[in-house]
Amino acid sequence: MIPDTVFFDQMINSNNLTTATSKCILCKGARAMCGKDSCPLMIKFYSHSKIAPLINSTKLEGYSPPAVFVGRYGYPKVDIGPLVPPILGNTSEMDTPEMWIGKSIDQIVDFRFKLVRGKYRIDATNFREGGRIVDGIQELALTKMPVGVEALFSKKPIGRITLDDEVQPFGPSAKLEKFTAENGRFEHYLEKSFYDTDMKSTDAVVNAYKNGTLISEIQKAFSVGTMGIGKKRRFVPTRWSITAVDDIIGKNLLKTTRYNNTIDEYRVYQWEELDNRWCILMIPCSWRFELIEAWYPNTTWNPSGKSIEIISDHEFFDGRKDYAHIGGCYYASRMAVNELLTEQNRTAGVVIFREAHPGYVMPVGVWNVRENVRAALKTKPFKFDSLENALRHIDGIMDIPRKVWIINSNIIKNMYSQRKIDDFS
User: Fold this and answer.
1) Model confidence over 264-285: pLDDT tens digits?
2) Residues 74, 70, 118, 112: what is their CA dihedral angle, to the nearest 10 degrees?
3) CB 136 within 8 Å of CB 147
4) pTM surpassing 0.85?
5) Are strands 77-84 and 266-273 parallel, antiparallel or unpaired?
């Protein structure tokens, strides 16, 4: 028998035992060593512990919000499937981001983790060979209200919560063997585009939006091949469909707002939610747009940084041709801004300043940008007679000083450097 001291030494020397250096191991969710107000691991753990006993089987019955998900890995061969909670009754809140303003991250993760994802592999470009499961998923995506769903999996759903800055999180997953759903009432304008195989997908998106269909509903229908010219229809990964719909709607609104008369003053809208701080500056000039994001250390996309990371994208009057490297947030916020400009029959130069502070412990999806910019623009703006006064106000709201914002803003630097006609009079 090997003495305990010898065995201990052998473990160390063989690298099977090491001194604990991970902050997570030392902290155990109680000492806030990462600097976050809440431990993201514990948030996920508590949500999982609530739902795990309810999915301890290969069979699941519940009311889908309704919700579907289309993966992107391996495209065009992708996994598609319903998102189903083991809950009966009204579950619509679980997949309607338009209802999430005022919810905490804990609340959002809690009800999103209840959504179990079924995975059924198809060819996104030839989905009609997918059979009844594909038909059922399309019908689910078109349905207006929660419907009863029964799903049979090849094994008990497991897995970590999926986190992505583009899509809403969801819970465990497993291969889907069988799937049936009750008949539900289709959303009227989504149903119309589904049966109209001569309508372009862009027209279908805009038509539904202008008639009051929620953007989150349009995105689901867009992702499952229910829009577009007959044989050209495709399943679109959820991540791509979210940004595509925001972009389509935003560009359609810009066809008008770009040529409107300008606003008459400098405006600043301000907002704070989920430890994200927002200031939206509107400038009385021709259309231009910029989103600047500042990620503090110990936030999702700057987890171990020692300084604030700033990223931005912009466009001037003629728009941009390349994809914004800031991602879907750019198109979501641009769309939201143009909703207000459309309502007011005006145009403006717009710069959005966003500070993501450490309390923003995990990404919850692009909706966070879209809906919070929308919410900010519903508040009464502060009005100013000069850019300098507007920036001075922003200086008192945001933690980052204005000189840093100016350095990182192509539009503001352009405003300062651009010589006006008055300079020559």
Assistant:
1) 999 999 999 999 999 999 999 9
2) 120
3) no
4) yes
5) unpaired
